[in-house]
Amino acid sequence: MAWFALSAPSAGRAKKKQMANETLIRVEQLYRYYGHYCAVNNVSFELAKGEVLGFLGPNGAGKSSTMQMITGNLAPSAGRITVAGTDLLDHPKQAKRQLGYLPEQPPLYRELTVDEYLGYCARLHGVSRGERASAVKRAKERCGLDVEGPRLINNLSKGYQQRVGIAQAILHNPAVVILDEPTVGLDPIQIREIRALIRELGEDHGVILSTHILPEVQGTCSQVQIIHQGRLVFSDSTDSLEHRLRAHRLIVAFHNAPTVDELRQVTGVTDAQALAEGRFLVDYADTDPAEAIVERAAAAGWRLHELTPERRTLEQIFVELTTAEHNQPEEAA
Amino acid sequence: MIAAIAGRELKSLFLSPLAWSILAVVMFILGWIFLVQVDSFSVLQSRLASVPNGPGVTDWVVAPMLGDAGVILMLVSPLITMRLLSEERRARTLGLLFSSPVSMTEIVLGKYLGALVFFMIMLALIAIMPLSLLAGTSLDLGMLAAGLLALALLLATFAAAGLFMSSLTEQPTVAAVSTFGMLLLLWIIDWAGTGRPQVGGAFSYLSLAHHYQALLKGLVSSTDIVYFLLVIVTFLVLSIRRLDRDRLPH
User: pTM of the prediction?
Assistant: First the structure.
């Protein structure tokens, strides 16, 4: 029932907000054990239409297992998965029609041509005979494969094979597209193109992608989830992740350096630390003391020549979240 | 869906040189055997004619050729079936099937049908040889039909066993060797129990060769047909269960 509304084209942020309540994927208390080893431990989340959800985590964190469960490649030990309102475990066929999946290694038959392969995928996904040719053509256009149709998949470069994999995932116009590390092993230009494609897909599909490259999440995703040892340790919007990146710290440098104590007296500064060659690290709490420092430097003749807000890298946040002893999943903002 | 999977399987088979070379080798060897039988028949024809109720051309040429065909195809059929599922596993294309709206049963039946169609093409080519004798003589068509039915059932059994073995492993060669081992065991299992009537019956019931040869004689009995169908269904069900186990927690 939701499917008809989904296939209508949509664009623009305002519209996106309106549709935010259209839940495409709902995962509830998902567990997966391999013997006694718990690969996925109590993972719950939702994906709405128009969202691109980034799944971050170190290797072996449970990203792929979670994605395999959502796509029906793996049965969960416990939990519920609902795809566009259909329970995946109770009605797998119906639910899988709404899914497009690109596994870590694209599932390609190398002895077939791109056209033959995509035609076969279209049949597998139940695209009706009349629509098959146009579906294949549309998917090829979106993935930049217009002229590759008659070529053997085996003879394509890795980047193009990856595109064929993505074309396969979006061929039947699914409500949800799930991509497992889609940019691994590609060159920077290809990575940029594929990221652009993912952003585009996010406009009228729900997209889940997994990666261990943090800038990729910043560049393409609207939501971020960090998974570590099978648990969700962070789940929020990319904007709020961005907020966490601000480090409340400035680097300043003077030709005519003041003492550390003089710097500490500037309004807003909580602590200062001297580095070599007239450089200082300045910590602050709530108000940014940059302006006050500039004024004070001008008045006292410290000859300020550098002032840089320090940002924490995503890597630092990542390490902080994944190595902390008491990780609590954060509430969504 | 089943047809789509079977069609892709058949296409991939014929895109590889393996299927073509197997067809060529099998046809060459069987052609040789056929000609040798025809030749010996033409030499012995006058003497055979004097034996009351003696063997005719169908008994002398067709039945032995189909008997040999069974053995030769037991050797080569694992090479056709070895890649059915193990190749999908190795190339990680099984994920495509699992995430498509297709059930495990449909996957297995599609794969099986793909292999079966290939074997039936082979059977049709083999059938041309005895049928060519119709140009010069008359055949016992009933017996010929029983022989072809026997070979069809035998090949269908080979395909099911090969499919199951292929579902167990990622290595096509391992699948081929174990399929061959199992088929050979099923072929000769009635060697055991000779001279012990109380167990001999059970062993000969299990034997592929026993049922195959019974049909080749022109005796179409439901026992033999049911045996083949039982073996086929067993292997197909086992394959479905094996694929399901990939998903389930263990």
Answer: 0.83
